[in-house]
């Protein structure tokens, strides 16, 4: 059992700004990291590359799978309020704190690789807008550096400006994508078909490979948990934010994926993934120049919002783990005196974003470099969800609030599905390199394999290290709660 003791978090000097975020702001803060319009520009390309006109089925299934995964943060958010999100949930789930370091390390891999979505994604999108821009070979570097600076400065200035911005623009983005998709579907007329929703058994392995990008489309739905120390009444409002962000993400992406499929044309869908900014082509075809311009504006804003939300989330997870003396330097738990942001964690993330994204951009180009990194990102976040699922079952059993469906059956089932997605992703990427050896295919396979080694093997080793060598730190990790109550195990 747990008992409550007084907090030793260090007083208000190192506390985030409380009462800064409400339910709807939290919802669109999460949705900002999903980045629906930006998904159309980069992640959906990976899905179309793998399963073609069945991409809408892949996205629909991914949304349903993510719905299962959202049970864990939804249930945990009613019990715990910690900026560490999944990491803090996992750390506090057992007496030894075993799953905390593993979850933090797995999430770290996702943190480092997923920045490519915003940084290289916007660079690729802008770089491919016209042949004149594309002719300037390294212009994307300027876009990438500008993006990194922007998504670091805004979070540095505090959470309030960030969530206000993402709330207003996020709602407009979702409404635009939904309405535009319906118009395109109507305009297509007889070109509409039920075929994209069919799934022959023969393509199941490739279908599961496409899941790594389809699931990544929805990555971020649960990050409102990372601002739970800054939300008013977090144990009531975070769960509502999670539900709203999940529903709006489906509203934005599922109709849009189908609209892109039939708008491009089912028979010619093979050319979708290789085209420059294919989503823009479809929108301009059916909505004219105004529709194309609006998509460009919302896509750019989507990347900007995603980057801001990502930096906020990452810096708060690092802040929480650092506060617990897990993996990160203690300095990462320092909060800016004026802006109440984890400024040192933000600066460290900015430097790492710069190095990783420029390296992969130079090696593979911004578009392919982003997709390679996002393959690893998908592996990292899936393992993070698996650890969190296990932790929910363990935590609720010890607290005697266990419900067999939401705390047992669903977490176990969703973890099995997650393991299947990982297996097929790694298998298909390795087979692609064996059958068609190339530098790019080798990079995709390596990204997936390294993701498994990092997020599973190394993560478990690190957890054993903390439990055996630093048991006091491991036991206390993740026990801080937003109501200034620290939780520890009874002897």
UniProtKB/TrEMBL annotation:
Keywords: Membrane, Transmembrane, Transmembrane helix. Residues 50-473 form the Amino acid permease/ SLC12A domain. The chain crosses the membrane at residues 21-45, 51-71, 112-131, 137-158, 165-186, 198-223, 243-266, 286-304, 346-364, 370-392, 404-424, 444-467. InterPro entries: AA-permease/SLC12A_dom (IPR004841), APC_superfamily (IPR050367). It comes from the Archaea. It is a multi-pass membrane protein. The keyword tRNA-binding does not apply. GO terms for biological process: transmembrane transport. Pfam families: AA_permease. It is found in: Membrane. GO terms for cellular component: membrane. Its main location: membrane. This is Cationic amino acid transporter. It comes from Cuniculiplasma divulgatum.
């Amino acid at each position: 059992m747990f008992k409550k003791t007084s907090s030793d978090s260090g007083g208000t000097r190192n506390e985030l700004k409380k009462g800064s975020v409400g339910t709807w702001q939290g919802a669109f803060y999460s949705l900002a990291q999903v980045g629906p319009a930006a998904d159309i520009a980069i992640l959906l390309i990976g899905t179309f590359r793998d399963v073609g006109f069945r991409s809408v089925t892949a996205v629909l299934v991914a949304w349903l799978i993510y719905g299962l995964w959202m049970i864990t943060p939804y249930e945990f958010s009613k019990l715990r309020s910690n900026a560490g999100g999944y990491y803090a949930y996992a750390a506090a789930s057992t007496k030894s704190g075993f799953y905390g370091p593993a979850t933090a390390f797995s999430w770290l891999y996702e943190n480092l690789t997923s920045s490519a979505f915003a940084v290289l994604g916007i660079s690729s999108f802008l770089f491919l807008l016209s042949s004149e821009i594309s002719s300037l070979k390294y212009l994307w570097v300027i876009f990438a550096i500008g993006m990194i600076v922007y998504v670091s400065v805004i979070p540095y200035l505090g959470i309030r400006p960030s969530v206000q911005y993402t709330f207003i623009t996020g709602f407009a983005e979702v409404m635009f994508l939904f309405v535009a998709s319906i118009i395109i579907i109507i305009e297509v007329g007889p070109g509409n078909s039920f075929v994209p929703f069919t799934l022959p058994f023969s393509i199941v392995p490739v279908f599961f490979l496409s899941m790594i990008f389809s699931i990544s489309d929805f990555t971020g739905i649960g990050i409102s948990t990372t601002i739970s120390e800054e939300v008013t009444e977090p144990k009531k409002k975070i769960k509502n934010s999670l539900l709203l962000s999940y529903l709006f993400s489906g509203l934005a992406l599922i109709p849009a994926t189908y609209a892109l499929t039939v708008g491009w044309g089912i028979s010619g869908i093979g050319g979708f993934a290789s085209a420059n900014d294919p989503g823009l082509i479809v929108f301009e075809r059916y909505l004219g120049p105004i529709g194309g311009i609006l998509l460009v504006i919302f896509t750019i804003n989507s990347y900007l919002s995603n980057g801001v939300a990502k930096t906020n989330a990452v810096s708060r997870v690092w802040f929480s783990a650092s506060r617990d003396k897990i993996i990160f330097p203690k300095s990462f738990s320092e909060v800016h005196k004026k802006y109440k942001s984890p400024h040192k964690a933000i600066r460290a993330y900015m430097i790492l974003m710069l190095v990783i994204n420029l390296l992969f951009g130079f090696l593979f180009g911004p578009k392919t470099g982003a997709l390679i990194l996002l393959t690893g990102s998908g592996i990292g976040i899936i393992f993070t969800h698996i650890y969190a699922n296990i932790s929910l079952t363990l935590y609720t059993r010890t607290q005697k609030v266990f419900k067999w469906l939401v705390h047992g059956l669903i977490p176990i089932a969703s973890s099995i599905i997650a393991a299947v997605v990982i297996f097929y992703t790694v298998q298909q990427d390795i087979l692609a390199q064996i059958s068609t050896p190339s530098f790019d295919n080798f990079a995709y396979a390596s990204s997936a394999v390294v993701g498994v080694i990092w997020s599973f093997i190394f993560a478990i080793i690190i957890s054993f290290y903390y439990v055996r060598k630093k048991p006091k730190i491991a036991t206390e990790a993740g026990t801080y709660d937003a109501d200034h109550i620290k939780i520890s195990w009874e002897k």
